[in-house]
Amino acid sequence: MRVAGAVTLAGCALWLPEECYTARQAQANGAVSTADSSGEGIDRLPTAAGTAPTLMAVLAARRALDQAGVRPDRLALLAHAWVYDQGPQTWTPPHRVARELGALDCAAVGVRQMSNGGASALQAAVAHLLAEPRAEAALVTTADAFTDLPYDRWRPVPPLGDGATAAVLTRGPGRQVVEAIASAGDSGLELSYPTAHPFEPLPGGHVRTPGAPDRGALRRIARCVGRAVDAALEDAGLAPDDPRISAVLPPRVGRTLTDYLTGAALAPPLRGKTVASGRHTGHLGSGDLLANLAEHPPPAAGDFHVHISMGAGFTSTCLVTRGT
Fold first, then answer.
1. SUPFAM superfamilies of this UniProt entry (predicted)?
2. Greatest CA separation found in the chain?
3. Most-buried pick from 2, 106, 114, 295 (CB within 10 A)?
4. Contacts of 291 (CB under 8 A, 6+ apart)
5. CA-CA-CA-CA torsion for 252, 311, 181, 162, nearest 10 degrees?
6. CB atoms < 10 A from the CB of 203, how many?
7. Does 209 have pLDDT greater than 80?
8. For the CA atoms of 216, 222, 228, 233, what is the dihedral angle to 10 degrees?
């Protein structure tokens, strides 16, 4: 999707709980080895026991709205994405977030795309602003709290952290504008995902921890990510070796998977521009791309950032932003 700067990222926020589960604690519990935790480049995972994910999303959203100078009643669309359970008696999480924000008149929708949820929600919000002339602003939120997993949160690949993210999108100029956003899919990989729910015990109380994809699946994942990146760069009018691309920000999936995807999915000129994130968060469920937007400064004027997201199923999204 060619956006050409018509939509602005007016505010981006990351909310993390104060408590965390450190690599040292996980090593002491036998959940992870010292070599594995240090090799993946993750030293702690935030934990949000007792905080409802929808409240986490509201807290992130308020920060992003304040940053953007946008009132909740100006929102035309709220797109909320999540991976894990959103809490008891939360039957429609997007509407819970909208109500607690005071965005009572907006269309509140949910996006379930596993770890690509936040990126898919962002693409939907961009499309809404481009296509609906009455829409002035849109809000994207994500929230996940992996508090009741049947296994230690350090065991999956990648390790799972709790947190919420938010991004406010408006029309017109701003410090960071959307130049292009594109997605690609490979639904043939749906069968490579566990037949049992990845976050719940197996029948009979047995536990199976989600592991890394096999080599065949990894190759297909890399091809899919590469297609999304190629499409977004084409829509942005950029070649992989364009010197104005100053950073490539992959999802927070640990060093091993990031290094593989960087080598297999990206053109050589992009590989050296990869900026790793997630040392203090691990994988934030559906929120990795928005977390990277919140934590990293916008590109310098005239420069571009390439943001990559992916989720089981399989779907990948690439966002290209430009500094102004």
1. Thiolase-like
2. 57
3. 106
4. 14, 163, 165, 252, 277, 278, 281, 284
5. -40
6. 7
7. no
8. -150
Read off the pLDDT of each residue in 91-110 and give the average, rounded to a whole number: 97
Does the predicted TM-score (pTM) go above 0.90?
A: yes
Q: What is the pLDDT of residues 252-277, one digit of tens each?
A: 999 999 999 999 999 999 999 999 99
What is the second-level CATH architecture of the domain 178-323?
Answer: 3-Layer(aba) Sandwich (3.40)
Do the domains 2-173 and 178-323 sit in the same CATH topology, yes or no?
A: yes
- Residue 203, token pair as written in the block: 């029948």
pLDDT tops 60 at residue 196:
no
Q: Determine the topology of domain 2-173 in CATH.
A: Peroxisomal Thiolase; Chain A, domain 1 (3.40.47)
Pairing of strands 107-111, 75-81: parallel
Q: How far apart are CA 235 and CA 185, in angstroms?
A: 17
For residues 140 and 122, the answer to whether their CB atoms sit within 8 Å is yes
Q: Where are the domains of the chain?
A: 2-173, 178-323
Q: What is the pLDDT of residues 19-64, one digit of tens each?
A: 999 999 999 999 999 888 888 999 999 999 889 999 999 999 999 9
Q: Give CA–CA dist 95/109, Å, rounded.
A: 8
